[in-house]
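Researcher: Here's a chain I'd like modeled. Treat it as a single chain, no partners, no ligands.
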Amino acid sequence: MTTAEATIQNADDGHGGGHDHGDVRPAFAKLTTDVANLAFSPKPGKWWYIAMAISLAMLGVLVASIVYVVTVGIGVWGNSNPVGWAFDITNFVFWVGIGHAGTLISAVLYLLRQDWRTSINRAAEAMTIFAVACAGIFPLLHTGRPWFAYWMLPHPNDMYMWPQFRSPLMWDVFAISTYATTSILFWFMGMVPDFATFRDRATQKWQQVFYGILSLGWRGSARQWHRYERAYLILAALATPLVLSVHSVVSFDFATAQLAGWHTTILPPYFVAGAIFSGFAMVLTLMVPARYLFGLHHIIKQAHIEVMCKICMATGMMVGGAYGIELFIAWYSQNPQEQYTFLNRAMGTSAIGYITMVSCNVIAPQLFWFKKFRTNPWLIVGVCILVNIGMWFERYVIIVSTLQRTANIPSAWGTFKPTLIDISTLVGSFGLFFTLFLLFLRFFPAIAMAEVKATLPEAHAGKDHH
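Model: Modeled as a single isolated chain. Structure tokens:
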């Protein structure tokens, strides 16, 4: 029994009699063919080669920047006293935020039985892992000697060194590594049935071996499906708290500091809402073009796109509310330093960053109130790119603008001016992200076929009769 046949059988067994194989088989076969063609077509479209060439060029910039930084030292960055954190930590927080939507879509929406998630959850999970990989580069380089990164792990040694567990930076290490591990497990386990489908359809030897190894001997038996669904549910339950915990822990890097503008309890929910906001914007930025270029309209439906636009709009309003609450708290506290910090953010030397942040994160998503903006792919991608620009500037404003004016004493002020290496490392990180995502689209099952089949109307042919 092939995997496709087992899937059909499973659908019949799981939903009672009365199903018509004449309806189910063509629907399942078309879905399998459409998704498998992404990987098995002899040549991808021209757009894939163009996008890959640009991404590889940007990746080359990243590699050159990293080699230069490791060789010369982080003095080539624009960091100064008191701006000891700047582009590197801004980029780190930005990429961790991008990685949030994958787990939310895969775990939280799965537990809430939101079937629309099945069309985009696989790509969102991949995006999460690639974003976390990009995020990990920056704090590692910021240590100055990344080859000693293993010192952050608790291990016996003769130098009596031990990680400082009271530091939120150490909390980051464990929070991010736990998040990455769980996300990879969730992503890989969800692909096992689809890897088996690819294995069965592969015609070349290397493809049969490659997908055969990844499918872990999957045959689609009732016992395997039963264990798979149990394990998937357990992983979803384990991953759900991570949606809230990871970016909360990242926000502790700032909230636990005795610094005006950072030392506030609003940062954890503010960071989580912002992370979901930017994550959904990135999912739309990637999947709306993929939907048109790969002809996936019948899988990623217009209704799914509109739901994600509405989530972007809702989380954008949460973020906008947080901006307003921050200003209110600063005024209500009657703390001159707190008031000065926020006044400086909005009207000081980095005011352009604050204006960009508010315009892109608060005003731009309001366009999704209009159906025209939720149905036009160009407008959707345009708004989502603005959101991601705005979310990067949000982190820049929080980190750099605050550190530049850490006290109401001019002698303690400093400035930050990014160097070419700062900018090239940021640009290069996008190259790494897009290169990995394009390879994923080309060689991995980009759509969760088994999950989408279970939600097709044809899989529930007898439902109308109950």
